[in-house]
Amino acid sequence: MSENQFENIIDRTLERIDDLNVNGWRIYQNSGLFRFGIDAVLLSGYAAPREGEAVIDLCSGTGVIPFILLAKNRVKEITALEYFEYFCSLIEKTARLNSCADRIKPVCEDVRNVGRIFVKNSFDVVTVNPPYEKNGHGIDSKNGIINAARRETLCDIGDIARAAAHLLRPAGRLYMIHRPSRLCDVFCALRQNGLEPRRYRLVQSYADSAPSMVLLWAVKGGAPYLEAEKNLVIYDKNGGLTAECAAFYGREAYERV
């Protein structure tokens, strides 16, 4: 499958520069395709890379997770793996915009091909905000790029788990955000590839609403032990971010709410 088939749906006149809401950093996005949402922000706050660790973000899109991690000084440098050349070009533009081109390495490649381009056991941390829906489920978008971001048309959870297993060193960690409805699929795929789920945290919009997202992390070669963390509530009763959720954005964003 080639990106050429999507070329006619990329309208470059719709490119825009948006506020990343962290330390004054900004990001290039295309309003005709998709812009980052709260799920990417939550994952970037949930991931916990340690100083000096090698980090790679899969299915990186416009690179929002890597750029937030860089802007917060959570990592010194990071690799961003993205299928679409167009999004890799936006990552490069954003890197120049924020003067961090020497700290981020965009790699344009299919996540299913990581074994061909990366040496096994090369990274300490993998982050990924993957497509949530199974291919063929729900209503497909007429826009193939949007569809690929939402559904497993280009890769599925098994592909993600296999890629992470190849990339991670022993005891390396995978941080992911997904849907609660797919937890069985996620846990099965991870364990089948030697990645042991260790913790998960359900995310709900309001205190009285059902969870709509789940944050989780797994350890390569870890012993079986799964812990459920306290649910994260995004909005308070007045519709503003809860203090706990605002911490995922950073204090600057919280002060603007």
Task: Describe, in plain words, how this protein is organized in 3D.
- The N and C termini lie far apart (42 Å).
- It is globular and about 50 Å long.
- It has one domain (3-230): Vaccinia Virus protein VP39 (Rossmann fold, 3-Layer(aba) Sandwich).
- Helices cover 29% and strands 25% of the residues.
- Helix 1 (38-46) crosses helix 8.
- With 257 residues, it is an alpha/beta fold.
- The strands form two sheets. Strands 3, 4, 5, 6, 7, 8, 9, 10 and 11 form a nine-stranded mixed beta sheet that branches.
- It is built from nine helices and eleven strands.
Provide the fold topology.
Blueprint: E1 15-19, E2 26-30, H1 38-46, E3 55-58, H2 64-71, E4 78-82, H3 85-97, E5 104-108, H4 114-117, E6 123-128, H5 144-150, H6 157-167, E7 168-178, H7 183-192, E8 195-204, E9 211-220, E10 227-228, E11 232-233, H8 243-249, H9 251-256
Helix pairs in contact: 1-2, 1-8, 6-7
Give a short overview:
This protein has 257 residues and is α/β, with parallel strands linked by helices. The protein has helices at 38-46, 64-71, 85-97, 114-117, 144-150, 157-167, 183-192, 243-249, 251-256; strands at 15-19, 26-30, 55-58, 78-82, 104-108, 123-128, 168-178, 195-204, 211-220, 227-228, 232-233.
